[in-house]
Amino acid sequence: MTGRGAARDAHAWDRTIRLWDVYFAVAWAATLAFVLGAEFPGWPVRLVAALLLVPLVPWYLMVGRALIQLEQPAERLTTPYLAGAMVLFLPSAVLVGETRLMAFALIPQCFMTLRRRRALIAVTVINLAPVAGWALLWRPDAAALFGNLLFSTVTLVFSVVIGSWIIRIIEQSEERAELIAELDASRHEVSRLSAAHGALAERERMAREIHDTLAQGFTSLLMLVQAVEAELDHDLPEARRHLALMDETARQNLAEARALVAGGTPADLDGASLPDALRRLVDRHGAAGLDVTGPVRPLPAGAEVVALRSCQEALTNARKHAGSPVSVGIRLCYDADSLTVAVHDDGRGFDPAAVCSGYGLAGLRARAAEAGGTATVRSAPGAGTTVTVRLPVGGGPR
Q1: Which residues of 267-305 are buried (b: 16+ CB within 10 A; e: fewer)?
Q2: Cis upstream peptide for 325 (omega within 30°)
Q3: Tens-digit pLDDT profile for the chain (398 aa)?
Q4: Helix (H) or strand (E) holding 390
Q5: Is the whole model's pTM more than 0.70, yes or no?
Q6: Are 309 and 278 within 8 A, CB to CB?
Q7: Where are the alpha helices (DSSP H) in the chain?
């Protein structure tokens, strides 16, 4: 039998071995009945032929039945079994022509337990050897010989055609079983990779959220602490103002942390429009101005969150790297199918191509890309910096 390693429970005879038992029993009983009821030769010869068929039953039950159910039976096991079956079958088939009905029980087993070439050889022997032996033993007339030979030839052709078809069906079944197993394995792998990718994406999202909210808030607190330490001895009013800013920044960080844990809207956008949220952001940074153009309208929450976080990142970078004093401006533009936010500072600037580390700009670009937009940074030493984020929103004015 040919095979490609697929599970044999995909084949019909594995699930219905009892049907094969019944088939063998019916073929054996019918053969026995035909032998005992034949007119030629005499009853002693017919009795011998019938007795030779009896060991086929325990031989099948104890050896053949188990081999048929194996996943891929080794031919070193199946060949002796079929050889023993033919040793028991052929003598009786030579003695009595009606015994050849038993071939219909043995031929399927050849195709089920042997590879194609050996199966065809065994089937040829089972079909033609009895006729040859019967003709040599009994010397029948030409008509009887022709009839038996014709019957055996038709049976052989039928067996070869049906057996080859069965083998091809088996091969296709095994191929499909392998493909199904590979598909199941691929599905499991895709599911695993999807879960891993989802976990990685969620970690990256949380990292960006923490960087754009809590980390920037803590940076602001550290800068305000340094300012207060410098002002305590000679400028108490300014120190108190900075302490108030520290209080406001800490409260804002707490609100952002709660929103982050709950997975909700950023604190600045909670119950407010995007321009209002940016004005709050401008007020906290002190040195920034906001210019809004185009018809202000509600937008998808994702676009507004990206715009707000981009401004937070750009303002924090300006405060940390642009130098002091520095003027910062924010321009928010509502177009028919897009939202553009640009943050410009007139600080010392830098060479964007030389920046190969850091999380801020990479996270800003990744956040914009996830929303289907783009983030560009234009800067040069001594020429200030402009961060522009353009997001598709669609829908036009509402």
Answers
A1: bbbeebebeebbbbbbebbebbeeebeeeeeebeeebbb
A2: yes
A3: 444 444 444 444 455 688 889 999 999 999 999 998 888 888 899 999 999 999 999 999 999 988 888 767 788 889 999 999 999 999 999 999 888 889 989 998 898 888 888 898 999 999 999 999 999 999 888 888 898 889 889 989 988 888 888 778 877 888 888 899 899 989 888 888 887 877 776 677 677 667 666 777 787 788 778 888 888 888 888 888 888 888 877 887 777 777 666 555 677 777 788 898 888 888 776 667 889 998 988 888 888 888 888 888 888 777 777 666 678 889 999 998 899 999 988 888 888 777 665 566 777 888 888 888 999 988 888 888 899 999 998 654 44
A4: strand 385-392
A5: no
A6: no
A7: 12-15, 17-36, 43-53, 56-59, 65-69, 75-95, 103-113, 116-138, 142-210, 216-231, 236-262, 274-285, 301-321, 360-370
Q: Tokens for 43?
A: 């009853």
* Tokens found for residue 83: 């050889």
